Amino acid sequence: MATSTVENYLKATLLHEQENDGIVPMGALVEALGVVPGTVTTMVKAMAAQGLMEHESRQGVRLTPVGRALALGVLRKHRLVETFLVRTLKMDWSEVHDEAEALEHAVSNRVLERIDEFLGHPTADPHGDPIPNQEGVIADTATQVTMQGCAINKSLQVTRILDQSPDFLAYVQDTGLKPGTRVKVLRREEASGVVRCETKIGHEIALGLTAAAKIVVGAVA
Amino acid sequence: MATSTVENYLKATLLHEQENDGIVPMGALVEALGVVPGTVTTMVKAMAAQGLMEHESRQGVRLTPVGRALALGVLRKHRLVETFLVRTLKMDWSEVHDEAEALEHAVSNRVLERIDEFLGHPTADPHGDPIPNQEGVIADTATQVTMQGCAINKSLQVTRILDQSPDFLAYVQDTGLKPGTRVKVLRREEASGVVRCETKIGHEIALGLTAAAKIVVGAVA
DNA sequence: AAGTCTATTTTGAATACTCGAAATGCAAGC
DNA sequence: GCTTGCATTTCGAGTATTCAAAATAGACTT
Ligand SMILES: [Mn+2]
Ligand SMILES: [Mn+2]
Ligand SMILES: [Mn+2]
Ligand SMILES: [Mn+2]
Question: Is residue A137 part of a domain?
Answer without folding.
Answer: no
